[in-house]
Amino acid sequence: MMTQNWDELRETVLHCTACKLCETRQNVVFGAGNPHSQIMLIGEGPGQHEDEEGEPFVGRSGQLMDKMLDYIGLSREKNIFIGNMVKCRPPQNRDPERDEVEACIGYLRNQVALINPKIIVCIGRIAAQRLIDPDYKVTKQHGEWILKNGVWMTGTFHPAALLRNPNNKPAAMQDFFSLREKIKELGIEL
Ligand code: URA
Ligand code: SF4
Fold it and tell me: How far apart are alpha carbons 66 and 75 in whole angstroms?
């Protein structure tokens, strides 16, 4: 069921028990940033720090992402909204399972419907495979743009993957520069 109201959506999500991740979470992570922005970044799901704080991307990955955003003049407070495929932490940071993603995706769709973004950036494989292409390969397809239902979509490396493999950092930074270009091209006011 879709709602027209952002706060109502948040309340619903904060109390959700639609999948088994509700049993092990500390906090639901609804997402953060500016819901009036035209740019959404979608990660995988909360990790330990996110679960503890109820905020997305606040651990080491998040710090790296904030740094990369800062490079292109974006900040989560001002001009983007950051969400996740699942709003509750998968135990031991395992990948979210298919049934969990499917249980949660309606909330993401509702967020997208209310925000009505011009750009969606998939952060990592889990988001890109569900939102862009089931066979999406980050190493091959990162930084490619596709127009889907009127929204420009792209994917890039997950910052956790960059922390494990810093060799991909320059390629990831190229994706962020490409995002900056797309913002300009579309005339999005920041
Ligand atoms: N990784 C994600 O995919 N999302 C977060 O919110 C934090 C880490
Ligand atoms: Fe509900 Fe999503 Fe949390 Fe599962 S992950 S309990 S569907 S909010």
Answer: 7
